## 1
Amino acid sequence: MKLNLFKLIMLLSKHSLYIMVIQLVSMQLVMANATLGQSLAKVKVSISVSNASLEEIIRIVENQTDFVFASKGQMVVSDSRIDLHLRNSNLKHVLEELSRAFQYNFKRINRNIYVWKQKKSNAKPNDKIDYQVFDRTI
């Protein structure tokens, strides 16, 4: 009798352990989040504008992508206007073109792209677009 009870306890313990392992693996799959790490070079946009301001081009990019543009303190204001005709171009290239034309810097953090005026200097405009992706997993 004691032997049968011992076998039954061992069998239940073994099955409980298997079930617990399956639950742990399942929980990991459920808790996995999609990452926001898509490179700016992989995001495609098409822009065809004439005599457009930076603000107009930013609105077009926002409408074609999941990114939101933000500026620190002041609105993006530029008296300059450009003609820009790009088809299926990557977003990194578009931001580099805007940086050269308007002397603004761009920095991506998650789904936001921050915009600020370049400091006045004799140096050529910054061609580098910075971006960082932060995981918001809790």
Note: The longest helix spans residues 2-31.
## 2
Amino acid sequence: MAKEAAAKPAAKPMSKNELIAAIAASTNLSKKDVAAVVDALGEQIKAAFTKKGSGVFVFPGLFKITKKEEPKKPAQKHKWVPMLQDYRDIPAKPAYCKPKLTALKALKDIVKNGK
């Protein structure tokens, strides 16, 4: 019965501990070693997005994370809002950065074929 439950796709995403346990089981490494690799990967991503970093992180074959800079938006006075059927003042928004994740070919093929 336990093997049948493991074969079904999970209804929710794996937690960090579940991911570490699955990788450790498939690679015959200790959980401590796998956890160190996952933490080091997180540190590399963080280093790529610091002020001295490149602003781009690529996990070869799977995904690329870039930094997208959104410009500031000026305030809008007396703007018509169709949903409310009324005029509203919209406050200004400052410029900000947000991450953009792009799937690369290998990940696209995995999602497309389900393999």
Note: DSSP finds four helices and five strands in the chain.
## 3
Amino acid sequence: MKSNLQLALEDLKSAYLLYKEALYNTSGFHSQQCVEKALKFVLEKHDVYVRNQHDVRFLLDTLKSYEATYFEFDSDVDMLQMVYTASRYADVYRELGEKEALELYTAAKKIYDFIYKKHAT
């Protein structure tokens, strides 16, 4: 069975490939999914399991009570949080542009890399 961190890496790779194909909304969604799964991976290391929670702001705030080093990702997570629904559902749909999709991917990669270096090596 794959860990949430392995699944996060798959989402990160998907976000990049989709970005390169100019599928910016779907790229943004996978960037958010990467961070969601990576944060869940760290929470699981603290015996905190949140299955049906997709709010990366909630996940980060929960994690910060265990590890203060995650405060540096507040603005990145806020940016990623807004694309979860806005990139997926017609009633709140918002088109992402190339620049915004790249910013989301970059934020996701930064958070993933931090978590990987801190917890997977």
Note: The two ends are 19 Å apart (CA to CA).
## 4
Amino acid sequence: MSDHFADAPRPSFKAGDRVVVKMGPPETHCRTPSYLRGTSGEVVELVGHYHNPSLLAFHKPGLPKVWLYRVRFKQTSIWDQYKGSERDCVMADLYEHWLTPSKEQ
């Protein structure tokens, strides 16, 4: 991890980790697509440590900052009727508080 994140708490996930998007009710200002909720994917990249946009939207300071991850999902995991290639995927940038570790590794 670079010095840029020296004061940040340790991230919960790293590239290659399997995660599941939480099923919680939508926040008033939510940046997590509802179609991904309950779906498992793979962390591809740790994007950064940012002010929480759900709080910033309401003129709050957005603290504490939260980790943002780039997560890859197989299309066939998202859409039951998907007829495309097994290799097709969706990439989404998701904040840590929406992710839990997957039981499948």
Note: Residues 53-56 form the longest helix (4 residues).
